[in-house]
Specification:
- About 15% of the residues are buried.
- Helix 1 packs antiparallel against helix 2 and helix 1 crosses helix 4.
- By secondary structure, the protein is mainly α.
- It has six helices and four strands; from the N terminus they run αααββαββαα.
- The strands form two sheets. Strands 1-2 form a two-stranded antiparallel ribbon. Strands 3-4 form a two-stranded antiparallel ribbon.
- The radius of gyration is 24 Å and the shape is globular.
- Helix content is about 35%, strand content about 5%.
- The chain has two domains: about 100 residues, Dehydroquinate synthase-like - alpha domain (Dehydroquinate synthase-like, alpha domain, Up-down Bundle), CATH 1.20.1090; about 55 residues, no CATH class.
């Protein structure tokens, strides 16, 4: 987004004041505005990949006017690299040279893994910043209907109002007699 703002500024779609306003906001929020691996080569690879999936049109989203968006298709590779060079130079004047404060994204909705393990397992039980580090924000160890990770299903689930949905104590995942096979 920060690079897109710089591209819009280079194209005359954002004033210098509006451009600086956006970058200052991103910086104060701790968002990543630049990365050492973001270079002309990666920009070119990304651009080529986008062109393949968008019928040969770049459709680069840039702010214009501030608070709105315009899609650009008529940008040359040279223009993209020129804007990148300007962006890299501008980032030198920002805290952390444009690096974000917290670049971690958990894998709860991305499928991201580290050493073939979900990133959350590397976080000492902390998941998504929810209460007690449990998925879905359940307190006291409850996670997805399973109590305290002991492999049992609450009695209310196997008896009473949920019995019909679960098929008389048999969960859809194949666990029987109220015991969950996944250990949650």
């Amino acid at each position: 987004m920060a690079y897109s703002a710089t591209l819009a500024n280079v194209r005359g779609l954002l004033s210098d004041e509006e451009h600086k306003r956006i970058l200052n906001l991103f910086s104060r929020a701790g968002l990543s505005m630049d990365h050492p691996q973001f270079d002309a080569e990666i920009l070119n690879k990304g651009t080529q990949a986008i062109l393949k999936t968008r019928d040969g049109k770049l459709r680069a989203a840039v702010p214009n006017p501030l608070g709105s968006c315009t899609f650009l298709n008529d940008i040359s590779d040279e223009d993209l690299v020129s804007a990148l060079n300007k962006h890299k130079e501008i980032m030198k004047g920002y805290p952390r040279e444009g690096a974000g404060i917290e670049a971690f994204v958990d894998s709860s909705d991305t499928g991201y893994t580290l050493n073939d393990k979900p990133v959350e397992s590397e976080m000492n039980g902390k998941t998504n910043g929810h209460a007690n580090g449990h998925a879905n924000g359940h307190a006291n160890g409850d996670s997805n209907g399973h109590v305290n990770g002991n492999g049992t299903v609450p009695e209310a689930v196997t008896k009473g109002k949920f019995q019909n949905e679960l098929g008389n104590g048999r969960l859809a995942n194949g666990s029987e007699n109220g015991a969950a096979t996944n250990g949650h």
